[in-house]
Amino acid sequence: MKIAIPVFDENLQIFNNTGHTPFFAIFEQIGSGMFKKIDFVELRKNPRGDESANTGCSHKDSDMSEEERVAHKNEHNVLGEIIQDCAIVLVKKACQNTAKVFNERGIKVCKIDVSCQSAKDALKFIKL
């Protein structure tokens, strides 16, 4: 099972705003229970990455027309493409469109504690 976590870079510090994360850190879990092993696999670049949006986005769907909302949601589809082979994504924050894209692809969204700073520490928040 593959797990995605939004991060700044190879230091694997968690990026708060999933939709604009510069990278997704990909981990793979093999086995379960006391035989479970989770290894770091790779970083995947997000073309929507924007480090200045770490604390959140300024756009609100309520301020958009229906056509703008559809276009905005479609901009998020790339997120689902990047981690399409992952079963879970661990997030601190994910806007409605980001969560919708993951759900449509069968990727489970699991919230992690806002105090968690490291992707490796976030792995304890996996809930199946």
Automatic annotation (TrEMBL):
InterPro entries: DiNase_FeMo-co_biosyn_sf. Residues 48-70 are annotated as: Disordered. Residues 58-70 have a biased composition (Basic and acidic residues). This is Dinitrogenase iron-molybdenum cofactor biosynthesis domain-containing protein.
